[in-house]
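Putative cytochrome c, Phenylobacterium zucineum. Tokens?
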Amino acid sequence: MPMRGAAAVGACAALLVGGCGKTGGGPTAIAGADPGQGRRVIERVGCGACHVIPGVRWPQSRVGPSLEGFGRRALIAGRFPNTADTLALWVRDAPALSPGTGMPAIPLTEQEARDVAAYLYTLDAR
Ligand code: HEC
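Tokens:
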């Protein structure tokens, strides 16, 4: 089997939780973003210090809202449309969108922010 095929299968496996493409109901997977990488970023920077995030190993606190089922939410922080671009901006610079929010800016690259957003979109608990 050519390498390209194998890589595509691997990418699909990474998206398995999100259903490998459209999940029906929740937002779609983000092009060029890797949810598995996003989960590792979430663990590295410690989003779990403030959020309950399914699938993330971290002593999770409830300073911020639980992110359970976030892939199905229509709004971010009850105010902003839950689109990939807005979510990627929110996770690295929430105060830019919402001055005075309790969520701090987090030092992430744009790619990391998109990977994190992609992981949050796999959270589609039924
Ligand atoms: C210091 C605590 C803290 C940290 C660290 C933190 N957050 Fe938050 N987060 C919050 C708070 C507080 C809110 C609620 C903000 C609001 O409603 O204005 C929030 C809101 C959110 C929301 C919107 C939730 C909703 O119900 O709409 C998302 C998504 C989110 N955070 C993701 C993350 C991610 C991803 C990280 C790590 C990159 C992270 N947060 C790190 C405190 C934190």
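The chain is about 40% helix and 5% strand.
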